Amino acid sequence: MSERNDETKELLISNVKRYRKAQHLTQEKLAEMSGLNSIADIEGGRSNPNLSTIVKLANSLKVEVWQLFFNAEKFDLKELSYESKRQLIKDLVDSI
What we know:
This protein is mainly α. It is built from 5 helices and no strands.
């Protein structure tokens, strides 16, 4: 796997954990809500979820798919113009 793919996967794992914990959900509860067998392998980095799985996770966590790939620490969205935000989202989608 390339370095960029590794970074993207780590960001996905980190965000799934962050959103899950923010909503006080266990891995088991999120798996149940998503119709998945397990979240542990995803959060542990032992599986590569496909797009369908990522969409199920986003829906269950009540976030947009792109938010699972967004590094909030890297950007201060309040400081970005509308066009910059739009380009950032396009770049994120293109990287998936």
